[in-house]
Write a structure and sequence with these properties.
The protein is built from four helices and twelve strands; from the N terminus they run αββααββββββββββα. It has helices at 12-15, 41-46, 62-80, 217-222, and strands spanning 22-23, 26-27, 96-98, 101-110, 121-127, 132-138, 142-155, 160-163, 168-171, 179-193, 203-206, 213-214. Strand 3 and strand 4 form a beta hairpin.
Length: 233
């Protein structure tokens, strides 16, 4: 690469990790990554642009300005990034009775007003021994991971599953994904649904003999599904 009219600074060697190599008027392309050099941040701070009176200024030598503003813009970009990371302990979250009422405690870890999310609802659910959540199905797919305890799960065909620590359950949306819980030992699990819209988390009870699906009015109200603010799709 032929180069002409090269402008340099007396402090170039301090400002950059590597200086450009010019041979016979040609720039030698470096084999290092990127431009082959990086600004030295501490040196840039030590050499701010000067005005004609010798005081530090945003105006003055354009080359000094260019190097200095490169540093300022880079530093400003980092300063303006605000972390959106949220870290908390589930013990800080207030629990509430679930669909079955007494015997089920639900802590909403994501997708609530206190812990909002874009498209995710995560719940820590605890069941007391003897609790029975009858056959039901969901509008959207549901994922469960069992942390502790024992239960017997039953599907729409009547097939039973022994559930314990480490059990993974995926329930597809619709009546074919229906399931029930019969708690044998105090059970704790994580439930995940791919929505933060409460009206999409409603579930329908199923009569095992007739397969008829029903939804109590109070449950619809709790899920803000009396009057939908937008389509489910």
């Amino acid at each position: 690469m032929r180069v002409t009219g090269i402008e340099t600074l007396h402090c170039d060697a301090e400002l950059f990790t590597h200086l450009p190599v010019i041979e016979d008027g040609y720039l030698v392309v470096p084999d290092r990554p990127g431009w082959g050099t990086e600004p030295v941040e501490d040196a840039l701070r030590a050499h701010p642009p000067k005005n004609q009176a010798g005081a530090s200024s945003a105006s003055g030598d354009p080359l000094c300005n260019r190097a200095y503003y490169h540093h300022l813009l880079k530093e400003k970009a980092f300063m303006e990034i605000k972390s959106t990371l949220k870290v908390f302990n589930q013990a800080e979250v207030q629990g509430a009775p679930g669909v079955v009422g007494q015997g089920q405690l639900v802590k909403q870890l994501a997708g609530s007003a206190e812990h909002p999310s874009e498209r995710l609802t995560v719940m820590l659910v605890s069941f007391e021994p003897g609790t029975h959540e009858h056959l039901h199905w969901h509008l959207i797919e549901v994922f469960y991971y069992v942390i502790s305890g024992r239960a017997v799960m039953k599907d729409i065909e009547g097939k039973t599953y022994d559930i314990g620590p480490g059990s993974v359950i995926y329930a597809s949306p619709g009546i074919a994904g229906s399931h029930s819980w019969e708690i044998k030992e105090k059970l704790q699990l994580i439930g995940v649904r791919a929505t933060a819209d409460p009206e999409k988390t409603i579930q329908f009870d199923v009569d095992p003999s007739t397969k008829e699906s029903t939804m109590p009015l109070d449950r619809l109200a709790k899920r803000h599904a009396i009057n939908f603010k937008k389509s489910l799709y």
